[in-house]
Amino acid sequence: MSALSSSPRKTEQGECICGFDELIGLLDTCSSFLKQINEEKEKALLYEHRRYPYTGDPEAIEEFIRN
Fold it and tell me: Which of 3, 8, 15, 59 is the most buried (most CB within 10 A)?
């Protein structure tokens, strides 16, 4: 049986070795989860920058102080 088998098998110690298809599915799940986390971080940073302006932007700081 090749290492890239599509069906899980057990080793002599009884440990399950996942097949290639299961591994790809797991990687897809992880990558979509990480993508969602990164998108949420970007949204949080945008929100934070709207509430509190960059220190190097004098116009934004003046507007922030006025409000």
Answer: 8
